[in-house]
Amino acid sequence: MIDSHIHLDDSRFDKDRGQLLEQARNAGIEGFVVPATGISGFEKLAELADSHSDVYPAYGLHPYFVEQHQQQDVDELGRFLENNQAVALGECGLDFYRDDLDRDKQQDIFEQQVLLAKDMGLPLILHVNGAVQAVFEVLKKHHYYKAVMHSFNGSEEQARQITDAGIILGFGTAVVNPKATKLHQVVESVDLDVMVIETDAPDQPLYNKRDQRNLPADLIAVAEFVAEVKNVSVAELSRVTDTTCRQVFGL
Asked: What value does the mean pLDDT of the chain take?
């Protein structure tokens, strides 16, 4: 199986990254899509991808860090994508969950990245925290749906509209929480071939591992739980989500 969204370049993995990668590979995880979050991390991620053939890099400007992003960063992102291999543009998008982030600036930087991805034919890796509909409206505005909505937590109706448009939904460790019944209903309602699985490691640890890092091998717990909700085997879930990952990211 492939982890469609993991931050292996995060400094919290600096001391044991190699060990954790081997642990995940031994568990059957054969690929890691790693989206950068800002200009300062691009070179580190490129070096990581050069060192590991199963690490697939993406580059983007994350809305969490909107106050740090400048117009020249958007320009540099375009130049970097032209000169370096990437499977996607991201992580980008909108975050309306946090009140301290400038929404107008988020919108401007996100729209520029959508246009850049469209011009380059790259899929988008989308951050949609508290902003599923707002992100979808931007994609509709620019008629570009080659994208994965990471850590999807919208409604069943939103999931239907978004997947009907051709967008893939990413589900991660939040779905494993037994109390996340609404999310379980969304997973149950979504066709298997329009979803991928992820960890978002080291963020979003499993509900029973709070205050710990989310680890690459924790994708197994996600796969097992989603397979149970979808009433399929883990092998079938892995086969279908692996195929979807390879198609959307051109792996």
From this structure: 96
- How many angstroms separate the CA atoms of 26 and 234, rounded? 16
CA distance 124 to 190: 20
The answer for 90, left when phi > 0, alpha when psi is -120 to 50, beta otherwise, is left
Q: pTM of the full predicted structure? A: 0.97
Per-residue burial over 122-157, b = 16 or more CB atoms within 10 Å of its CB, e = otherwise: bbbbbbbbebbebbbebbeeeebbbbbbbbbbbeee
The 10s digit of each residue's pLDDT in 114-170 is: 999 999 999 999 999 999 999 999 999 999 999 999 999 999 999 999 999 999 999
Instruction: Please give the structure tokens belonging to residue 238.
Output: 């892995």
Amino acid of residue 126 = L
| CA dist list (Å): 96 to 7, 105, 163, 248 | 21, 12, 22, 26
Residue-wise pLDDT for 190-234, tens only, equals 999 999 999 999 999 899 888 899 999 999 999 999 999 999 999
Place of tokens 């988020």: 106
DSSP, residue by residue, 235-248: HHHHHHHHHHHHHH
Whole-angstrom Cα distance, residue 90 to residue 92?
5
**Cα 149 vs. chain centroid, distance in angstroms?**
7
